[in-house]
What does this fold into?
Amino acid sequence: MSYVNRIIANTIEKTPGEFEFHQAVTEVLPTLKVVLDKNPRFEAAGILERLVVPERCFVFRVPWLDDDGKTRVNVGYRVQFNSAIGPYKGGLRFHPKVSLGEIKFLGFEQTFKNSLTSLPLGGGKGGADFDPKGKSDNEVMKFCQSFMTELGKYLGATIDVPAGDIGVGAREIGYMYGQYKRINDTFEGVLTGKGLTYGGSLGRTEATGYGLLYFVNEMLQRAGKSLEGQIVTISGSGNVSIFACEKAREYGAKVVTMSDSGGFIYDADGIDLDAVKEIKLVKRGRIKDYLQYRPNAQYTEGKRVWGVPCHIALPCATQNELDENDAKELVKNGCYAVAEGANMPSSNEAIEVFLANGVLFGPAKAANAGGVATSGLEMTQNAMHTSWTRDEVDKQLHRIMVNIYAQAAGAAEEYGAKGNFVAGANIAGFLKVANAMLEQGVV
Ligand code: NDP
It folds into this structure.
């Protein structure tokens, strides 16, 4: 059995039930075979064996009192995956389905993604099976305080710096930061995505969505195409989706769909983003409320957006939201570019369909790295006790995304997979981490 297949088989055997983690490992490792064959030092030093096992995982109880005085208990997680190139960095996800396998897949991916940003950031991820939906502000605060009371023991500005993810936005980051500061009596940049009044960076909120479009723009331009006048479908209506939509429109594209876990809206005239922002960011409502603003739009309950014809598709909601059949449908309807705003939104079979049909495909670890990159910029500003202008941050974000495209495209070409940015991003992300691990010895 080859080195890669042996590590995949062993990982699956040793981590039963961690399906998303198996999926991520099965996607990444085969693309590294060509590099491993060329550099036997990696196998000799057990680099893959070490890469697929987190440095440590914390699983902890999060007890809190709801508004009726009833005791509630959730399970919290932090996976410190790899610190070869910097302190652990990666978001916190609050969603009822969160499990150790999900957090491990995210932390594994994050290690390669952070490497691609060219910033000194290791890989980590965390969260809890807590659902902020339908909770009062007071309940969210109580939960966040209890969560941070335990998590805070393992954090530090040069140790581990979490950020937001699904279900964790400015409100949750604020409550967690307040609790960390209260317990530790220190004002350090231990979370990113902070509010602007207490160490946050201008441009962080928009960064993942904007960065996604900077990547897409670069990918299209290099293929002699442009976003101008193109029909774009976006899934989700959270942080990533909203700012992806905003930047796509700035580039002259027409976004016609957005969604949430209830269903999707289709607006042939182009999404009214002010309406979506009011529904989602102000009222914390459901996407079907969009019909109150635009009665001519359509709402489809319980379905995904991928049947809507488009030139460019941007999955920005969650993992495995786009399967093989969705991919075939997109290709049949003339979609020629897909870029992942969410983490692992496309199944491995869907990715194969895209690559086999010559679709320009931007994988998550490259295309959505703008969020963590700007978190890295927030850490730099905190360490320097300064704050940069929005324009300065945005310029750096743009430069980083163009550079990520160049790394993915360059590595793909160098290793005989021209145009395959999945392989290219994996290889480029891997090489930096693997070389750092080699130089640091067996640790
Ligand atoms: P948000 O919580 O702001 O939004 C998530 C959106 O996805 C919501 O519209 C939500 O709908 C929808 N969604 C979540 N779970 C499901 C599901 N199981 N089925 C259908 N729809 C679902 O999260 P973000 O926008 O921050 O994150 C979205 C994706 O982007 C995630 O994969 C995340 O890991 C990734 N990402 C985020 C970054 C960031 O900076 N925030 C950085 C890099 C990647 P509903 O409200 O109904 O649940």
About this structure: Residues 164-167, 208, 236-241, 260-262, 316-318, 341-343, 368, 371 surround NDP (CB under 6 Å). The chain has a mean pLDDT of 98. DSSP finds 17 helices and twelve strands in the chain. The longest helix spans residues 390-414.
